Amino acid sequence: MAIRKIRISTDEVLRKVCKPVKEITPNVLTLLDDMADTMYDANGVGLAAPQVGVLKRVVVIDIGEGLIELINPEFIEVSGSQTDHEGCLSIPGHSAPVERPNYAKVRAFDREGREIIVEGKELMARALCHEIDHLDGILYIDKAMEEGE
Ligand code: ZN
After folding, report:
1. What tens digit of pLDDT does each residue of 16-47 get?
2. In DSSP terms, which residues pair with 79 in a beta bridge?
3. CA of 23 relative to ligand 1 center, distance in Å
4. What range does the domain containing 78 cover?
5. How far is ligand 1, taken at its centre, from the CA of residue 87, in Å?
6. What are phi and psi of 91, to 5 degrees?
7. C-alpha 114 to ligand 1 mean position (Å)
8. What b/e string do you get for 37-55 counting C-beta neighbours within 10 Å, with b at 16 or more?
9. Tell me: the pLDDT tens digits for 91-133?
10. Total-model pTM
11. Active site residues
């Protein structure tokens, strides 16, 4: 378990498309552990692997309801819309309003390699959308409705 360095928005690693995890190796488990430590240390509600410089489709989220680990997450349903201020650990000190689906349902694998379904609305849907965007090199500022302060 270790805290990793969070990459900041000018780092081009944040703009790459991440590769799916083919096999859940000890390295992937360490990555999950370190990502959770790093997210909690930074008081974040989510973290995606490219934010610690790893181009794998791995996300951790905790909106205050417990840790969720997602390997190779894919949307299977989104609906509705919501607009709220959003920030990112890779863009410190900045936030801006972003329109997101109000509901999202995601299929992924857990650390045991079991298929899991994670769904949620409001903040959970926003966190899922924000973190999965990171896996495709997309930052919230690409979708922000206006400049934040
Ligand atoms: Zn982010």
Report:
1. 999 999 999 999 999 999 999 999 999 999 99
2. 103
3. 25
4. 12-142
5. 7
6. -130, 70
7. 26
8. bbbeeeebbbbbbbbbebe
9. 999 999 999 999 999 999 999 999 999 999 999 999 999 999 9
10. 0.95
11. 131
